[in-house]
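Q: What would this chain look like folded?
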Amino acid sequence: MTRAEDIAVRLNEVRAQIAAATARSGRPAGSVRLVAVSKKMPAQDVAAALAAGQIDFGENYAQELRDKRAAFETGAQPGAVLPRWHYIGPLQRNKVKFLAGQVALIQSVADVDMLEEIDRRADAAGADQDCLVQVNIAGEAQKSGAPVAAVPALLDAFARARRLSCRGLMLIPPFVSEAAAGEQTRRHFAALRALRDVEAAVTRPRVDLVELSMGMSGDFVEAIAEGATLVRVGTAIFGARVTA
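A: My prediction, written as structure tokens:
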């Protein structure tokens, strides 16, 4: 089996699991979208998944996303199907220029200063930008994300933005062993959903909290049971990443 064939098989297995979990939760087919996390994987792997029908891809590093995006767009034929990019990694002020107005969704906005920088860059590019607020739901000191108490003010800042819209919330739960990942992280997924429900009841311009981005390779089934609309799956599709 070729590498491309292996990716296609893995991708179909993940899709089947998503469809089954969606049905079990009593939600409509297609209400959960798969983001294939392609960080540190070559553009050929993205191309293989794209050929197998995957559209949404997640990257953690702004320059890597920039380079992969260019690789697909340079010389692309009119009407060609291109990846729809999601930025899911920590944001750095000097890397926002590679993202603002250039990706489908920035999933990791966590403070007002970064929000304002993305808005400034998007406005300069003359482009609108959809975002998610990343929430540090467990209050982990070492992890990115807005504290729960800071989320209302952050959503208020979106309401004042010129080019940004907030489409929902995102979560990276505390690390647990793969064997324990599902049920131990489920309570964090439930907490994010509850927070979304509270804030969605508040009317704000440019804020429409329809998305819950939560769940990765080891726990996306549990995330779907708790209301995920976007699941970010890398290893289950592309295999383990090689680290230096």
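The mean pLDDT is 94.
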